[in-house]
């Protein structure tokens, strides 16, 4: 903290005035000791004492202004430190989020979010379930063919009609089997395309997050440098404040000693006058 030039000038002015007033008082006291009955010297001594007291009151006002200015500076410094601590906490939280994302990326080695991974897992389970369901259907069809073959042997007389029916059933099954793989392959292609698009979006989002994290890290470094500078300034302010307090205490001791000296000299002069 830098003390205002006005207060510095007032402190220097009051110190100079106090020194001059003390010298004048000492001169008149010395003359009064030489000529105790001189009324003019007595009035000058009393006037010099009043001047010293007035200067002391002025110095008290200056020191009070200095104290208020120091209190205001400390309040501003506390407010600034509080704001800086809030900003540091926010940046630390952002840094922790970035570290968590990097850790998640290194563990899973994928650019997909957990929700997308769970969706893919569910689709895989559904495909497995469809395959498990299709196996019993194939077994039922095979059993049906065997039963049909047995019926064909038992009903040899109905061979032409049965053969025609089997051919029709075979053609229907073939057409249905040829149609189903094409549909499933189309769905798989569309699903793969959607996953690729999501993957691209996630890559772009991850790059944005990495850029933002780098920006936050740079801001955090700048903020740490600013905080170190602020701490240095605060330490220097505390030192200046301590110097001012030492000066105030020394000034008070000097004022008390001057007053005691002037009072003792006045009492000596009055005693000699009475004698």
Automatic annotation (TrEMBL):
Region named Disordered: 158-194, 256-275
Domain of life: Eukaryota
Residue ranges with Low complexity bias: 158-185
Protein name in UniProt: Putative BRAF35/HDAC2 complex
Source organism (scientific name): Operophtera brumata
